[in-house]
């Protein structure tokens, strides 16, 4: 049986690339097709009917026509425009970091409905008040679990001793926590406080209905950010561009309009 010439899917727009005078290639994360590319013809023209439904950080229902090399987007209807994320520079920076992680850690055409749900859920939480740095840590931990890099936070990765009530040493190359003895054999490991470990475990276990509602002090927040950044950097073997950008934006007004989106 031949495939229909066109198909529909929900999609979250995670990347856009200019092409020619007025076109774009969009990267879409979808619930059942995983990450896909779509050709958006004429979408940069002011009168384009599609453009408003195909902005970054938009959840849309998209219709695509099958093509030889790439499918073409022929229709799109916004499901949720996530407008708060597009009108606040600070919020946008968090959201752009999240979609860059999704783009970096996923391959095309690998279905993961639970990752799509996590992405939408995180964007919804981001629009609400709460501790957004912790929300990023929550997203990072769950994303990594889904793509096969879940860090071991309960036992020493090497000797399996429980680290329930002691300081651990996070070792990116071992994929988790080491006890003080084993950490001596790994120069790349660095200490993690008892409280830091406890918060990471809480976030990883998914027992919080809204991770942004958990309150921690600034120094603990900085510690958790460093742990996750070093681990992600090790996994990707490069800095995430948006992470550096996030640092810059944190220093700027969060009320500015974002014209980039
Ligand atoms: Zn050990």
Word description of this protein:
The chain has helices at residues 83-87, 89-105, 113-126, 132-146, 180-183, 194-205, 218-236, 241-250; strands at 6-19, 23-30, 34-40, 59-65, 71-80, 168-171, 176-178, 190-192. By secondary structure, it is of the alpha+beta class. It folds into 2 domains: 6-81, OB fold (Dihydrolipoamide Acetyltransferase, E2P) (Beta Barrel), CATH 2.40.50; 85-250, Recombination protein O, C-terminal domain (de novo design (two linked rop proteins), Up-down Bundle), CATH 1.20.1440. A 5-stranded mixed β-barrel has the order 1-2-3-5-4. A hairpin with a 3-residue loop joins strand 2 (23-30) and strand 3. Bound molecules: zinc ion. Zinc ion binds next to helix 5.
Could you provide a short overview of the structure?
The chain has 261 residues and is an alpha+beta fold.
Q: Which descriptors would you attach to this protein?
A:
261 residues; alpha+beta; OB fold (Dihydrolipoamide Acetyltransferase, E2P); 2 domains; 21% strand; binds zinc ion
Strands, total number: 8
Helices, by number, come to 8
Spell out the CATH superfamily of the largest domain.
Recombination protein O, C-terminal domain
What structural class results from the helix and strand content?
A: alpha+beta
Name every ligand kind in the structure.
Answer: zinc ion
How far the N terminus sits from the C terminus, by CA atoms, comes to: 41 Å
CATH class of the largest domain: Mainly Alpha
Please indicate the percent range of residues in DSSP E strands (runs of 2 or more).
Answer: 15-25%
Could you spell the SSE succession in H and E letters? EEEEEHHHHEEHEHHH
Largest sheet, strands/sense/barrel: 5 strands, mixed, barrel
- State the shape: elongated
The CATH architecture term of the largest domain is Up-down Bundle
Number of structural domains: 2
Q: Which percent range fits the helix content?
A: 25-40%
Q: What are the low-pLDDT stretches, counting only 5+ consecutive residues below 50? A: 253-261
